[in-house]
Amino acid sequence: MATLRELLQRNVREGELYEKLDRGFVRCYACGHACRIPDGQVGVCKVRFNEGGKLYVPWGYAAGVQCDPIEKKPFHHAYPGSLAYSFGMLGCDLHCAYCQNWVTSQALRDPEAVSSPMRITPEEVVQDAVQQGAKVVVSTYNEPLITSEWAVAVSKQAKAAGLATGFVSNGNGTPQVLEYLRPWLDLFKIDLKSFDDRHYRQLGGRIQPILDTIRRVYELGMWVEVVTLIIPGFNDSSEELKRLAEFLAGVSPNIPWHVTAFHQDYRMTDPANTTPEMLMRAAEIGRSAGLRFIYAGNLPGQVGDLEATYCPDCHELLIERYGYLISGYHLTAQGSCPKCGTAIPGRWAAEFQGQITNYPFLPRLRRRIHPTSLRT
Fold it and tell me: What is the pTM of this model?
């Protein structure tokens, strides 16, 4: 019986985001670790490996496929109400103790994290997305930067079919991977988990690559939204939130900032769950820092007006939300405020065409590689 690692090592191809070094080493540029990998070893992510002086990367499978409302990603300024066809592979370059996708992201680190992959081609991903009525195809559930070659192959097919593309990422990028993605990626959600490098090191990374990625993604013209999971006692001090919000406003005050509620999960069960009052306090700090679009998530109906989109100039209500449900859409065809004409930054459709779903559902495509022969 093949182990999960052995199975995944059969579903690979030579990568593009690397350079060959002396003595059989390679340098990987998929994430901010920029691993220098000797022959026969894996990178920090556990899924990119050196064999014979070549870097091999994940290919030809999906560990999770789901149809999501785009508000779940969350993107609030990109095609509201549309369906985001979401796919993911296995592995991550961080090891967050509170990860909500740990079954896929930590599959090669944690023996309890087992997610059976299914063979699939880029064409099949996009064909199913079109059949489901999706507007956007999103790489998510694990860290998409470490599977960028596969994501680009899917994105090329999606673009050819007239779909938009997106990443839901921790943002631990490099200049090389962002240039590689730039022609094929429209939307980029980045987690800014803290504004303290010590906290990032606890999660297995460093803060600087994340800050650099946020700046670079914005400069490259991809649409970026930023999420901070507010964790009591970890990243919720007023001083840290102030510095974080000021950084984002310094890149652009038009970047939407989502403050979302932590709930006890995976290996982090000590802090209390985040309250609505904590989210509203964080939002007020963001407003004071100059951010124009701030949203609170994971607590529908409990956070006042922080689920809706308002015009930053005249405060006209533009998009009404309850959780993932769009209950009112009032933007013009040009993506402007109907009252004062202010252009609202984002990626907007010419008209709101309704909402396929306001909750996730699984498509019928469930072909597994070896559904009963996996062990870690």
Answer: 0.94
